[in-house]
Specification:
Mean pLDDT: 87
Strand content: 15-25%
Oligomer: single chain
Largest sheet: 3 strands, antiparallel
Number of helices: 6
Shape: globular
Strand order of the largest sheet: 3-4-5
Length: 134
């Protein structure tokens, strides 16, 4: 059976447009997206939520590859399996990270504080130091 496409990536792109328009940051929209999208995904343990966790073995990605259930995979495993089974899951992952970055643009302290709860500086620096995001 073929894995379903993560067409929802397009909604993340729209959220990004609402948070930053050209060179202007809309802090109200950033907070709205944080509260009514990202936090709700976290609270409901949605298959569309993505979490990164740092463990001794490395960075763990908690995400869905099949839109049925979430899996806990080492970053390299998540990348390899997404490329093999469902590349759209990888593109969704990258766009999810892009959205989180856009929510911190403009030094929006409210969204920065919330994002720091789920993404530590150490985790992000390890991610970009040790892995290549395509």
């Amino acid at each position: 059976m073929e894995s379903p496409e993560f067409n929802e990536k397009k909604y993340l792109e729209i959220f990004r447009l609402f948070s930053i328009s050209g060179t202007k940051v809309n802090t109200n929209n950033q907070k709205f997206i944080l509260d009514y999208f990202l936090k709700r995904l976290q609270e409901s343990f949605s298959i569309f939520e993505i979490r990164l966790e740092e463990e001794e073995a490395g960075i763990i990605v908690v995400a869905s590859l099949d839109k049925v259930k979430q899996q806990r995979l080492l970053f390299n495993e998540f990348y390899a399996q997404s490329q093999e089974k469902n590349p759209s899951a990888w593109f969704y992952f990258v766009e999810y990270l892009n959205l989180m970055a856009d929510l911190a643009q403009g030094r929006n302290k409210i969204t920065e504080q919330e994002l720091c709860k789920v993404l530590s500086l150490k985790l992000l620096s390890d991610l970009f130091e040790n892995y290549e995001l395509h």
